[in-house]
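My current task is to audit a protein record that another person submitted. My question to you is simply how this chain folds and whether the tokens agree. This is what I was given:
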Amino acid sequence: MSCIRLLPDIVASQVAAGEVVERPASVVKELIENSIDAGARKIEILIRRGGISLVRVIDDGCGMDRDDALLSLERHATSKIRSAADLAAIATLGFRGEALPSIASVSRFRLATREPNAVAGTEIIVNGGKIDIVRDGGEAPGTQVEARSVFYNLPARRKFLRSENTESRNIEHQLHLQAIGHSHIAFTFARDDRIVFQLPAAATLHDRIRDLYGADLLERLLPVTSFSFSKVRISGLIGQAGLSRQTRGQQLIFVNGRAIESALIATALREGYHTALMKGQYPVTFLFLDLDPGAVDVNVHPAKREVRFRDPTAVREAVVNSIRRTLEGGRIDWQEKFRAPASRPPQPIETTAKIPEQPASEFAVVGQALRLPTPRIESANEALALQRHADRPIARQFQIIGILNKLYVLMENADGLVLVDQHAAHERILFEELRRRMEEQGVPSQKLLIPQTFDLPPRDAEWVERNLPILQKMGIGIEGFGPNTFKIDSLPAFLQASDPVSFMQRVIDDLKSASNSSSALRLGEEMIAMTVCRHAVKANDPLRYLEVEKLIQDLLECDFPYCCPHGRPTMIQISLGELEKKFGRKV
């Protein structure tokens, strides 16, 4: 007796629909993508009961005639590709011809469409995948799609849906993605007959983000200047150093207008923000990658959430470099916060004690970078006298008004009050100085008492062989010792590794995820950060005026002055508006 049977068409349709339609948010996503591909300039979305009871999407796109409308409900019927060769360069959001038949097979479905110049449109009603009614319709030009009672014929799938509120939030998230990715389109979203938002067509991405997230977030974003690298063009907005979230919820990435999730790009973002984010935090990004459609494969995931790049290394390098350039380019604006109002003279700081001498470092160049080289000044008045006669550019002027709790430098600028953490600021200065010296001079190494050998999997062994010069520059004495076998006879002098073999495995894992343009000393940066943390000025370490001034000046010269090597901010701004609210002068 035969055990293999063909599934009925209805069951096969429901099985296939399960890959495309996971929840009501999937319905909304697929319908909006169809509307965008149809050239819509305005899209309206209505849901009830979290989309379980009703999802309705109305657009003003090109519409369809009756033959195309009927054909669109057949599986794998599409206007977007013609042959297998077209799969190699997909330029539209949809292409498989699965969305409408999948939605129609798991809901009570209605399609109403009309071409702009047609006298009458077409209305089609489908229940559970079976066409019930086909008739003329009098709707406005464009297309309306309704999906009622989603999963009414699949109770096993329906019971896995979340609460109505959760499903509504998932839909709203999808709408945010589409609205950000296509800011030239107007979106209206209504939930249970209540308008949630109405977004007019926006001229720029800035306007769309302001409409969705508010002006406060927009002010803390940096524009990514149009950056091209290896035929990858990157644009958008990213958060300033220190602006982060505990999840990737606001880490939005678009490839050729398609919102995607990519571990490759997420890793590149983290590397681009290197030392500018605290551990466990994620950056806020609205990042757009434009590249040749033939260089990216979008046909790798049923819901098209993931993509595959033909040259992933080039994409990663482009993202890392664009993030770094944007953060470094924002340094000039950041420095502006330290400019003092020209109308008020600086006030004396009543601090005359000398900063304590720092202990010798376990690494000689650390000791050379520890002290702030300033003249010995015995009084604040003498410091002020020197300051008035100092010949420095106006752009470097800042007004120091005091020290709070022997830790926070209080400064005044045109926007209000600035607080600088002297410990975090000194950490950043020492970190960049020490890293620069190590890159120029190499890392001192210390011989192991007993050299150790270890084996690696073939892929890791091949990577080590290619990167032996980098590892040796990092102070790791490593060489081949047979097929897939290596010998370690020295390690960096400032590292304390009880198990060199385990240490090397961590090194390989860390450096394999780094871009080719990363510092060859990425491994040592964590240890550098720990070292400078011990030797930077601490709370309760009193500084003279010129020492504070030199600290601020050196901080402004850093590549990433915004935060310490651990990602904590070096400076925070309290605006005059905030102070006025605290004192009841402003509502």
The chain is about 35% helix and 25% strand.
